[in-house]
Design goal:
Blueprint lengths: L21 H7 L4 E5 L5 E2 L14 E5 L3 E10 L11 E8 L2 E7 L12 E4 L2 E3 L8 E3 L1 E4 L2
Parallel strand pairs: 6-10
Antiparallel strand pairs: 1-2, 1-3, 4-5, 4-7, 5-6, 7-10, 8-9
Length: 143
């Protein structure tokens, strides 16, 4: 069966649409990155094309740590979209001074705890209309 997209659900990941596409390129290589203002040095999450502190649009890419800790989490058992199995654990992960909303992969919901160490494990999602791979930040419990 062939499915056709009515529109691209992730247009901002494409180099054709945004200067922040580098985030996804780095994520695909296993690196969680964000932007740092070249003028005042402020880092932002999520990555931004301008600084919320000084309004500069000059930025550089910096890598965040590959490990973080669970700051908050919730478990979704029902209401999952077709094709997704449950339960799904969603978490706010503290990484390098930022809080990243993410999914926890391979996590037993009964064993997830606040402060638990987790490791970056990028999640591959549907390719873009040109066939380029796309990624979302995800984490797995650290051993």
């Amino acid at each position: 069966m062939t499915y056709f997209r009515a529109l691209d659900p992730f247009p901002l990941e494409s180099a054709d649409h945004t200067k922040l596409h580098e985030f996804y390129t780095r994520l695909g290589a296993g690196r969680l990155s964000t932007t740092r203002c070249a003028k005042c040095g402020q880092t932002a999450w999520p990555p931004r094309g301008f600084c919320a502190e000084c309004a500069s649009d000059a930025f550089e890419w910096v890598d965040l740590p590959a490990e973080g800790t669970v700051h908050a989490f919730t478990v979704q058992d029902t209401g999952l979209p077709a094709g997704f199995s449950g339960p799904r654990v969603f978490a706010v992960v503290k990484v390098g001074g930022h809080r990243v909303f993410s999914i926890l992969l391979d996590a037993d919901p009964a064993r997830v705890t606040l402060g638990q160490r987790v490791r970056l494990t990028p999640l591959a999602v549907a390719a873009d209309p040109k066939g380029n791979p796309r990624w979302l930040p995800a984490f797995t419990p650290s051993a």
